[in-house]
């Protein structure tokens, strides 16, 4: 039944099996209207299957998918208020840009007036900044421009949801960063719901306003980019979204004192059942200093590797009793002589409340 809904897309207990393979297990998800959602996870976790069930290219084995309050099970792709941009664009090579973008509108029944088609195509090309390219042939366009043609074609019939399946995967790094900003701007201008599939955490964090982290057919965490990065729900999310140092530990009987593998006790400011645990610490939460430690918990260690990344430097530091740590140091306050060299002895210091603690059974 149609109803006014503030959710554009809803999954209600959706499971999808392909024969003996279960791609998605019992997923429940609400995506508000106008949101930019990223489905993020490793290869095979089920994100494309979710996207294809929204698009109508697959049907759920169990449960229901709703768009704007209407149940979509059994409704074919072409009757859904949804369009999809594929990884390899799927443009018609023998058509020019304008013909590619107009194609869907020309197929509509009842027919749309030619003047209206031209007006909408011109508007869509303007939105993706290809105003002057209407007559160009596809093979005369760069990869980034072809990507924009695919976007124009997907928005020209004004869908209420746009699905993007790894849309930037074929572009080089620099172009990809530029397109990330453009996609975000386009989504704000159009005000429609975008659902992006990616295995690239940086892409998900930088573009989306809601990130859905998936693994093995299930949702591990749903939240803003900052929430999933700063407060990962489990060790999988902590590892997959950004880098993390894992430290073996034991939660003591009081449920608040965490004893690290080298005997150091810290108070991370959380409560957890006593027993084996894993402490997770982001590389940028650790201060690396020579000579003396800064406030907080600190360890002595030895630098084993240094990776110069331009605006930051990554260090690997071996700490007795705890193993290797990865540390990211911002270069803003550093000059060349401040760069620590492999072989040097250093102090690693961190605020114990920056440590996330998970039961070891979660590993
Ligand atoms: P990738 O990033 O590699 O595209 P994904 O997270 O999008 O992966 P899906 O493509 O949704 O994952 O696949 C989820 C699981 O379902 C995988 O185990 C995959 O092999 C399986 N699968 C997907 N499509 C089919 C199909 N048509 N027939 C059989 N199994 C399939």
TrEMBL record:
Q: According to the UniProt entry, where is the signal peptide?
A: none
Residue ranges occupied by any ABC transporter domain in the UniProt entry: 9-241
Reply yes or no: does the keyword Protein biosynthesis apply.
Answer: no
Which PROSITE patterns does the protein's record reference? ABC_TRANSPORTER_1 (PS00211), ABC_TRANSPORTER_2 (PS50893)
**Protein's GO biological process:** putrescine transport
Quote one Gene Ontology molecular function term. ATP binding
GO CC annotation: what is one? Answer: ATP-binding cassette (ABC) transporter complex
Q: Which UniProt keywords apply?
A: ATP-binding, Nucleotide-binding, Transport
Name the SUPFAM superfamilies on file: MOP-like (SSF50331), P-loop containing nucleoside triphosphate hydrolases (SSF52540)
Record Pfam families: ABC_tran (PF00005), TOBE_2 (PF08402)
Give the family per the record. Answer: Belongs to the ABC transporter superfamily.
Q: What is this protein called?
A: Spermidine/putrescine ABC transporter ATPase
* Species of the source: Rhizobium grahamii CCGE 502
């Amino acid at each position: 039944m149609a109803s006014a809904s503030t959710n554009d897309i809803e999954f209600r207990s959706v499971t999808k099996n392909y024969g003996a393979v279960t791609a998605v297990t019992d997923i429940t998800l609400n995506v508000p209207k106008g949101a930019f959602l990223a489905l993020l996870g490793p290869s095979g976790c089920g994100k494309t299957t979710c996207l294809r069930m929204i698009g109508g290219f697959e049907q759920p084995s169990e449960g229901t998918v709703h768009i704007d309050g209407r149940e979509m099970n059994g409704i074919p792709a072409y009757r859904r208020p949804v369009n999809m941009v594929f990884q390899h664009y799927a443009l018609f090579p023998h058509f020019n840009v304008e013909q590619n973008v107009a194609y869907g509108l020309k197929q509509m029944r009842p027919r749309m007036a030619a003047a209206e088609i031209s007006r909408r195509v011109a508007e869509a090309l303007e939105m993706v900044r290809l105003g002057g390219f209407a007559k160009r042939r596809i093979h005369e366009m760069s990869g980034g421009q072809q990507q924009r043609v695919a976007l124009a074609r997907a928005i020209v019939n004004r869908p209420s949801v746009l699905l993007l399946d790894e849309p930037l995967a074929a572009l080089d790094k620099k172009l990809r960063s530029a397109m990330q900003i453009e996609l975000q701007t386009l989504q704000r201008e159009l005000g429609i719901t975008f659902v992006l599939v990616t295995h690239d955490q940086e892409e998900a964090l930088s573009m989306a306003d809601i990130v859905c982290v998936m693994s093995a057919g299930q949702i591990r965490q749903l939240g803003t980019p900052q929430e999933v990065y700063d407060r990962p729900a489990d060790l999988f999310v902590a590892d997959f979204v950004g880098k993390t140092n894992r430290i073996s530990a034991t939660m003591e009987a009081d449920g608040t004192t965490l004893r690290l593998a080298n005997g150091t006790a810290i108070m991370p400011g959380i409560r957890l059942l006593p027993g084996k645990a894993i402490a997770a610490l982001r590389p940028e939460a650790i201060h690396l200093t020579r000579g003396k430690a800064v406030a907080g918990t600190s360890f002595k260690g030895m630098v084993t590797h240094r990776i110069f990344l331009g605006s930051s430097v990554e260090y690997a530091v071996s700490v007795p009793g705890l193993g290797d740590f990865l540390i990211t140091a911002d270069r803003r306050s550093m000059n060349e002589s401040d760069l620590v060299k492999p072989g040097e002895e250093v102090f690693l210091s961190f605020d114990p409340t920056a440590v996330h603690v998970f039961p070891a059974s979660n590993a």
